[in-house]
Structure to design on (767 residues):
């Protein structure tokens, strides 16, 4: 069960049209491709995707699940929006646990022994089959995937305090003084019969905020259920903010070395990609340490950047440390640096978007929302969030 | 959706002058344009014109072709009714008991029962070895409007070698004569793409079978030019029919020109191909890529110039590639230098090797070879 209802409000302009899991990532993907591909590569062939915020693009992206080989007659991928039930009130998903509660009928169609709960906003590769094996071996009621973080970072995560067998005895949400550095990755395997009982009880509790981290896990711990931490090592990144999204994209720039190895044929990440011819480098092109995708036309300079499909970088334009989403056009002589430019935005000739880090507090990644036109010679400062067209000349 | 047109694609051509490129495949499944196979262009033409039923006539060496087209899913041709049908030479033997079809009418006679079951009123006959983005929807409209018996696609801009082409003589808006494989071009060049009604096609197939006529060009167009009204449909964009390695190389390289690409890759009529889930192409520090066409999934750390790179090519540090076509999975190791070369799939060029051909004779390295 993949929780993909997140609004992603901290991604601001990038999620004004799409849910967070549908935000483009890594040149060819959307965030949701990572957990979805992990499922398929782990041998999971029945996946429910729970959506509610701006689901249109996400729904059409997932479609019948064919790019992930999830177009199956038995199982496959299913989009699960909130719905009305006769006789009673229907509601939006009130929390992560409520979202699963509302879809218990779907889960029971498959009469599963175990249920895997995932979220749609992390970039990582993980074999859930290994985690399930551990869940069975330990006889746990719930297994939670954890990542070792630094003690400073631990204050920003849900932290699991465990005994010598990695059995969890305490869960603390964003502790001021963490006792351990095992951060929850928001990946849970439950024995379905147990989870079912706790979901029913949680729903009956009017004071509950119906959330896995806040309610279900503490309730299970209080009742003495066996919760086990599953240690994951490897690349894992939450991409919930502009900075972390930019960072994670930069991590992909290594030709297989760091970040997630996108070229690993043993664990491919699948995506629904449009048909585009190969990209073109023109006579003046200079491309360095960057990802470039089909349909791009590059005749300028591109360094340390991620170009999604059908991006145009005209002669004399310079793109540095930036993420250009599908269909973006950077006109002649423009400079785009330390910026995220969303789908089909146009950066006018000689315009300047973003600045290199200044060391000052108010520095940040500049963001240009989709379909926006930044006029010729315009200047977009660092950390700007452009959601309206910017006139030419030296506008703000 | 236009559902009046049925498509028959002849996908068995085998041109010996393509040497290494046809060692394991026929002409139709040769890789082309950085991420396609030649057959993709005609298949996409059909789909882009709303054609839902496609019969693909194959003969020999078609394993690679079948691998590529599969169920037709990538062209939306995997359908409950109709869709893509592969038509192998079931029980076919010509007079000598072996060999490829002697002509299109011979091939059509071999699939006579399939033709009877065609659900559409019109049929387009086309070669699977033609690289073109042909507006077949317009061609069908022109065919219906003119009331011609046969509409034949042709170009005023001769692009093929005469010994491999047919030429039409036109008079009064009609094709009055056909020169088949003449030594010199004469008239407009035929693309050998024809639209005719299903009924006419069936009667022609029966007539030709009864008279041992194998060729559409000589047996139908030439022999019946007085009786049949054949009208031209002009198309003046990019057309390539690779028949030799040098020809393949030259026509491929034209795609480095933006104007040529604009004729072949149209947003409204996209060329579809088998999806392979490749990541984006990664350019390493100090890499160079100039005036080149590069597909997804490559890792480029060396230098690339005036070249076409298919999916998943590796160009390692210090390697220099210019005026080359590197097919899928080629690896150019450190410091190797390649000029005017074609590397077939999964070729590996070891460190420091220097290979040079010429544009009139591009050096071709066969599939899976290690140099």
């Amino acid at each position: 069960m993949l929780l993909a209802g997140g609004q992603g409000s901290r991604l601001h302009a990038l999620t004004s049209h799409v849910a967070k899991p549908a935000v483009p990532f890594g040149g060819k993907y959307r965030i949701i491709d990572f957990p979805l591909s992990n499922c398929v590569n782990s041998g999971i062939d029945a996946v429910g995707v729970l959506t509610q915020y701006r689901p249109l693009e996400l729904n059409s992206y997932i479609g019948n699940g064919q790019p992930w080989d999830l177009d199956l007659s038995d199982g496959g991928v299913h989009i699960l929006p909130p719905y009305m039930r006769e006789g009673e009130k229907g509601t939006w998903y009130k929390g992560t646990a409520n979202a699963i509660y509302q879809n218990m009928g779907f889960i029971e169609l498959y009469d599963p022994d175990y249920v895997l709960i995932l979220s749609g906003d992390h970039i990582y590769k993980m074999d859930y089959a290994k985690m399930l094996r551990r869940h069975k071996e330990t006889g746990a009621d719930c297994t939670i995937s954890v990542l070792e973080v630094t003690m400073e970072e631990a204050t920003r995560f849900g932290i699991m305090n465990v005994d010598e067998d990695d059995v969890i005895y305490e869960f603390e949400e964003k502790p001021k003084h963490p006792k351990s550095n095992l951060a929850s990755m928001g990946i849970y395997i439950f024995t379905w019969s147990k989870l079912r009982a706790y979901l029913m009880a949680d729903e009956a509790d009017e004071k509950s905020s119906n959330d896995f981290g806040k309610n279900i896990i503490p309730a299970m711990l209080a009742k003495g259920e066996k919760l086990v931490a599953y240690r994951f090592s490897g690349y894992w990144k939450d991409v919930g903010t502009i900075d972390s999204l930019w960072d994670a994209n930069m991590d992909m720039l290594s030709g297989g070395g760091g970040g997630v190895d996108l070229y690993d044929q043993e664990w491919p990440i699948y995506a629904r990609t449009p048909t585009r011819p190969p990209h073109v480098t023109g006579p003046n092109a200079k491309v360095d340490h960057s990802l470039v995708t089909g349909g791009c036309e590059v005749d300028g300079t591109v360094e340390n950047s991620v170009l999604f499909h059908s991006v145009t970088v005209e002669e004399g334009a310079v793109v540095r440390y930036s993420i250009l989403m599908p269909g973006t056009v950077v006109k002649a002589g423009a400079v785009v640096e330390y910026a995220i430019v969303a789908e089909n935005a146009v950066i006018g000739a000689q315009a300047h978007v973003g600045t290199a880090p200044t060391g000052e507090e108010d520095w940040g990644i500049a963001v240009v929302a989709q379909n926006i036109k930044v006029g010729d010679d315009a200047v977009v400062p660092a950390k700007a969030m452009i959601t309206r067209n910017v006139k030419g000349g030296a506008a703000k | 959706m236009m559902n009046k047109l049925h498509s028959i694609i002849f996908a068995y051509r085998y041109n010996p002058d393509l040497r290494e490129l046809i060692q394991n495949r026929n002409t139709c499944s040769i890789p082309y344009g950085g991420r396609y196979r030649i057959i993709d262009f005609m298949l996409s033409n059909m789909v882009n014109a709303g054609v839902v039923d496609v019969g693909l006539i194959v003969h020999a060496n078609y394993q690679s072709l079948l691998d590529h087209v599969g169920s037709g899913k990538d062209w939306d041709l995997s359908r409950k009714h109709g869709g893509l049908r592969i038509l192998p030479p079931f029980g076919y033997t010509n007079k000598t008991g072996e060999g490829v079809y002697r002509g299109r009418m011979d091939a059509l006679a071999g699939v006579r029962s399939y033709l009877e079951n065609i659900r559409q009123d019109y049929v387009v006959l086309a070669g699977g070895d033609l690289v073109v983005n042909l507006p077949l929807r317009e061609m069908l409209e022109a065919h219906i409007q003119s009331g011609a018996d046969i509409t034949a696609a042709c170009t005023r801009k001769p692009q093929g070698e005469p010994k491999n082409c047919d030429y039409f003589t036109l008079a009064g808006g009609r094709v009055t004569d056909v020169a088949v494989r003449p030594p010199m071009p004469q008239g407009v060049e035929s693309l050998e793409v024809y639209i005719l009604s299903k009924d006419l096609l069936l009667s022609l197939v029966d007539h030709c079978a009864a008279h041992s006529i194998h060729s559409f060009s000589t047996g139908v167009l030439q022999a019946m030019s007085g009786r049949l009204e054949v009208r031209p449909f002009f198309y003046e964009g990019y057309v390539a029919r690779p028949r030799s390695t040098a020809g393949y190389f030259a026509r491929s390289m034209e795609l480095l020109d933006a104007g040529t690409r604009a004729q072949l890759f149209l947003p409204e009529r996209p060329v579809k191909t088998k999806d392979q889930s490749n990541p984006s192409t990664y350019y390493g520090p100090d890499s160079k890529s100039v005036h080149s066409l590069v597909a997804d999934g490559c890792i480029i750390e060396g230098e690339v110039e005036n070249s076409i790179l298919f999916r998943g090519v590796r160009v390692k540090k210090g390697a220099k590639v210019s005026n080359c076509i590197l097919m899928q999975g080629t690896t150019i190791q450190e410091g190797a230098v390649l000029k005017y070369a074609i590397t077939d799939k999964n070729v590996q060029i070891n460190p420091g090797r220097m290979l040079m051909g010429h544009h009139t004779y591009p050096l071709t390295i066969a599939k899976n070879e290690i140099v």
Summary: Residues 192-204 of chain A form the longest helix (13 residues).
